[in-house]
């Protein structure tokens, strides 16, 4: 029995000795930050809902959220959100797919909901002031 143990130790020790604390070649460098440019901005749906999206925030009239994680998988962005105040925080997972000049937003938590949004124009509550073109002043001949 002790001979088998000695043989096992003799075989195992050289293998264990080759294990060192050197860094592994398979360690990947950290991924660069996701370029969120295609989804950043203020977006409006056809039912008058506005979404403001940045790298840090995802806000709408009925939800104010912090972006905890932002990823991009083949052009579809995934956002992990934490919404609400400290006492009543809820998590929401969202996918956003740019389609031409629009975004398809899919809310995945609490049932799947889809909405399509376009870049917003001027706010309907903001006064739009158009420049007024005045008639040129009449030309008065010089007095002689």
Summarize, please.
The protein has a domain at 37-119: Beta Barrel (Lipocalin), CATH 2.40.128.
Structural description of this entry:
The chain is mainly beta and 144 residues long. It is 11% helix and 38% strand. The chain has one helix spanning 2-17, and strands at 41-45, 50-53, 57-60, 63-73, 76-83, 90-99, 102-107, 113-119. Strands 1-2-3-4-5-6-7-8 form an 8-stranded antiparallel barrel. The longest helix has 16 residues, at 2-17.
Attribute tags:
1 helix; mainly beta; eight-stranded antiparallel β-barrel; Lipocalin; 11% helix; 144 residues; elongated; single chain
> Given the structure, what is the number of helices?
1
Give the name of the CATH architecture of one domain. Answer: Beta Barrel
Query: What is the CATH third-level topology name of one domain?
Result: Lipocalin
CATH class of one domain: Mainly Beta
């Amino acid at each position: 029995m002790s001979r088998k143990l000695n043989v096992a130790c003799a075989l195992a020790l050289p293998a264990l000795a080759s294990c060192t604390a050197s860094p592994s070649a398979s360690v990947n460098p950290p991924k660069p930050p996701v370029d969120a440019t295609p989804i950043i901005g203020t977006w409006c749906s056809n039912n008058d809902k506005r979404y403001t999206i940045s790298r840090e925030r995802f806000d709408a009239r009925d939800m104010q959220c912090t972006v905890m994680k932002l990823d991009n998988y083949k052009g579809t962005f995934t956002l992990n959100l934490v919404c609400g105040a400290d006492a009543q925080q809820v998590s929401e997972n969202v996918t956003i797919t740019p389609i031409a000049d629009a975004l398809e937003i899919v809310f995945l938590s609490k049932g799947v909901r889809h909405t399509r949004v376009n870049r917003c124009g001027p706010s309907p509550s903001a006064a739009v002031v158009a420049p007024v073109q005045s008639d040129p002043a009449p030309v008065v001949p010089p007095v002689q």
